[in-house]
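Shipment paperwork, digital attachment
Item: protein structure file
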Amino acid sequence: MKMKIGVLSDTHLDRVTSDLKNIYEKHLSDMDMILHAGDFVSPEVIELLSRNDFNGVSGNMDSMEVKQILPNKKVIELGQYRVGLIHGWGSSDGLEERIRAEFQNVDVIIYGHSHRAANHIKDDILFFNPGAAIGYTSSSVNTIGFLEIDDVIHGKIIHL
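Attachment content:
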């Protein structure tokens, strides 16, 4: 089973914008699944991304409406892989250690919160943060991510 998965986080939008629609059409519309690691802010963003098979979690900046729709963490089975999906909290320092403690027996942890892209293996777990797709980032670069799943799982960060 080969899958292509689009991964976003930290869109921080109070509505669907033309920029988000362009990102969706150009990069995400043909994905087998879309994952969002929280801080949507508006449920309209969930509606747009749900045109595909979709999974998401709420983040610390999400509205109560979003928090009622989405959990704060979840585990998704993707083929032979177990993927933990969470937003994160607190300082960027120690963020991966805090979120690691939230999951048992996962192969991948997808997270957000820091607005900094990450794609590396630590203790046999792929830590993957797609960065911030739109708006404020700690750098001037907006990013999203792709996961390709076949016999192995491979992450890629895309600069927009």
